[in-house]
Amino acid sequence: xxxxxxxxxxxxxxxxxxxxxxxxxxxxxxxxxxxxxxxxxxxxxxxxxxxxxxxxxxxxxxxxxxxxxxxxxxxxxxxxxxxxxxxxxxxxxxxxxxxxxxxxxxxxxxxxxxxxxxxxxxxxxxxxxxxxxxxxxxxxxxxxxxxxxxxxxxxxxxxxxxxxxxxxxxxxxxxxxxxxxxxxxxxxxxxxxxxxxxxxxxxxxxxxxxxxxxxxxxxxxxxxxxxxxxxxxxxxxxxxxxxxxxxxxxxxxxxxxxxxxxxxxxxxxxxxxxxxxxxxxxxxxxxxxxxxxxxxxxxxxxxxxxxxxxxxxxxxxxxxxxxxxxxxxxxxxxxxxxxxxxxxxxxxxxxxxxxxxxxxxxxxxxxxxxxxxxxxxxxxxxxxxxxxxxxxxxxxxxxxxxxxxxxxxxxxxx
Length: 414
Description:
31% strand; disordered N terminus; 27 strands; 2 domains; alpha+beta; 7 helices; single chain; Purple Acid Phosphatase, chain A, domain 2; seven-stranded mixed β-sheet; eight-stranded mixed β-sheet
């Protein structure tokens, strides 16, 4: 398949923005990510054969995860990092390792730049697409772990506006480089990652890139629903549910059994501090241009059973392009949404305090309509929300079925 001239220009621009060490060799991107059970994986994207990886002074081969293909003229490489490793590097580039005890976790999601027919974001304007700025701010904070709650791929159709001129489009390497790997490079170099699959990575959209680069399952064919899994990192357990296929406004009779199995697996785990990670919120509040409030997600709600007995400290999600911290009247675990990583922001709901969702009401919370990210302080059961410049705008605490944020920027739902 021949690449258009604009695509070739975008690829060249992406490569030239990489560090010199990457341009001089075949290494285009490198990172560490949490796998199933909490295994730590080193991943790399290269042109040519997979490189060796240095682990505590010993060089070992990386394994080929995905060979080059028609839309992806790059190789994806992988190596498992042994527990207790102290130093890991690829071509003299040090890779980040998690500590034995997690203290700080950065969270962001919905980071790509939207180009979808007539819905066009100015990808070339840092004020309109701030993900590169947010990634640098997170890197500067050096959190112990970064959780991306999904939606990496957004450049689905050709650009027809000056603000995104020269942008590639489609599920291919140039787009994954432009939407994620190039702007995320400082963040990937600073901290290990935990990736959640978003609906933009379903098999009809960005599933090829997800399967090739970020999935924790074996590469081969895009799965409509990847099985949920636990992951232990630094004394905290995460339970990751692939909700990319979960329909928001109504339960899907075809999909509910798969998600019911996911929640059964969660309930069967030994008791331990656990965060539920799922791109589509269990209990989120979305808005429309007409000011209507839309509770979501109906498919997950139909599958999860009794929400008050879910063995989790909190549910952490993206999907709605707002910041939301919601407390519920029946004291189920709080829902926190950080969908403000760069894509066009969502409409605000008309109200949310008192809104009915999944058999209860929203009893309190905060909603913020601005780009940003969050950093959790695990030992203090607290987190702070930062704006696009890296300035703190909200201070929040969570626990005992509630989340509370303090700032004059919080909305009260009126």
